[in-house]
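Retro notes, item 3 of 5
We never archived the inputs for the Q7Y complex last cycle. Fixing that now. Sequence and ligand:
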Amino acid sequence: MKMGTALVYDEEMTKYKLLWVDPACKIEVPERLTVSHEALVKAGLADRCVAVPVREATDADILLVHSEEYLEAVKKTPYMTLEDLKEFTLQYGDVYFHPNIYHCAKLAAGAALQLVDSVVTGKVRNGMALVRPPGHHSMRSAANGFCVFNNVAIAAQYAKQKYGMKRVLIVDWDVHHGQGVQSCFEDDPNVLYFSWHRYEHQRFWPQLRDSDYDCVGKEKGAGFNINVPWNKVGMKNGDYLSVFCHVLLPIAYEFSPDLVLVCAGFDSAIGDPEGEMCASPDIFAHLTHLLMNLAGGKVCAVLEGGYNLTSLHQSVCQTVQTLLGDPAPRPADLDGPCTSALESLHCVRSAHRQYWSCLKHAAELPSSEISTKCIKLEEEEEEKQQHQKKEEEEKEAWPEPLKRLTPPVRTAVVLPDGVVCPDGCERFSPSEDLNILNKVRENFLKGPDDSDALTTLSSLTALVEKMEKNEICNGLALVRDVSTARMCVVQHAATAHRNRVLMVCVGDAVVPSPGTDDGKTLLVQFSNTESEEQKGKFHIPVCLKKGCSDVSGFTLAVLGLLLPLGYEYDPSLVLLVRTPGSGLCDAAWQQLTGLLQGLAQGHTLVLMQEGEKACVGPTASSLLGVAAPSLGKLPAPLPEDVQALERLRHRLQADWKLLQTTAPETA
Ligand SMILES: NCCCNCCCCCC(=O)CS
Ligand SMILES: [Zn+2]
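Structure as it came back at the time:
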């Protein structure tokens, strides 16, 4: 499987700027690109990428989205005087022209097409295009919001036309609604457009009625346009992750795209004057990671907005470093979604429940008076927040994202002699560390002579120690006795006081509840047997009618339950245990292994029963960072599974805020 990350950039795109006074446009400056690119160079990330040259989009490329008259009009701008340019600009909104902007707009669109070529032909696995002018606001026959040509919309049409891509997912995490993208594809069921955006009940630019959650697409495209309006500023990491886990990812997996394009705007990060949100730059490492197992990893990120040069360059680095496969930083102290975000979440899920089987269970929209009451309630909160926000603005500051050091060894394996070490992995030699050997001997050995158990258990202990020191990223062990191995790992990991172990079990082995409910271990167990005993906050049985053999139900449980739990729990180690009888297909198992690596700085330890030897290769592939194979278009999950998950989420959301999908009942 091809690895490699493309970086498409050319300094020519810095060579235009605002030539007159216009307060709405002055934030769109050339430094946005130079600062971002220099940060990638300084962080040593640019050198790790495959440099892909830009090219000018041809007329034919541009006409995939725009009208001839618009293109002909823009073609005239290089020859215009300053007065003509001002005149020409007046017909559009919140955008400016410059003698060189037509050239740069062709390069920006061409850069996106070069990126698509590199990814789709397999030259690289994924990549990022650092471009300006941005694109997602430009309409078929109009420039808008700093945008001239719609770079990502052109890229999507190009991918469909040139490569016969059936289904393209566009994720727009920019803080503005890409109305240009929406209008291009709103009747197209082959392009799923997702956008969240600052909206404030249509009070925020561009103040469009069509940006609200009930604009779901038209005719054949109904359901393939997802708008998540942020009706308040100050949204944080927990708000963003909730929307990914409870809206975007379940639908994206059901849609099963052949290609993922990202309108990667970073004005949704903290410090940005446009967005006024509070999400930290490292959240983009997680948003990127969560998309990287879709479409076999074919992800093309194209820069859109981002106007605070500090959070912009930090967010760009977080995104590129994740595309390169480096483990994501641990998500620091996530809050649950705020009331306003929950209302939006609930409305979006209700608006789309008829189109997506993963949402069938979404509760009915609250009757109209309740929703207006919510808005009234919000307006009161708003007054309070407004003056508070004024003070905050001055001291907007956030910690520099932690340096993400990549362990020297990516994947270590503990395997019985007869099993070959998968390519790219490092066989972990048994430990000679005497105090480990003694501890294992006295705590876990049944018979004194059980030498190979001693070898296995001491190797595992040593492996966990090396993961804690970040010398090894993740590991895989094929063991005879999984339950003893599991206890050994949990016991060792728990000794380090601040450790938390997320243990995920698939298969029919009965897993005893972790000792006390002290929170040092969170056990999530997938099975098909309804367990009778009441579990605590830290032991969560997920019972699916057909266990893990139903990929749709399993995927829904992973995306809408396991991931939010994992992010909120924020473990230092993820212990993924597979025992026979899970019925889990390799692709679903690899998706699980891939997605969980977004937690614990990628420290995932997979324990498998010896009988699962055939699964060593696929597991190693995921642990090495290779994208999991696509699951294909998912059939509808079993209604009883959907209801069971919904009930479980409602039962747990008092303890686990990221499981919430509806606003607390208004008094
Ligand atoms: N006219 C009131 C000023 C509001 N600012 C709007 C500026 C357009 C923002 C477009 C953008 O950021 C592209 S990602
Ligand atoms: Zn924007």
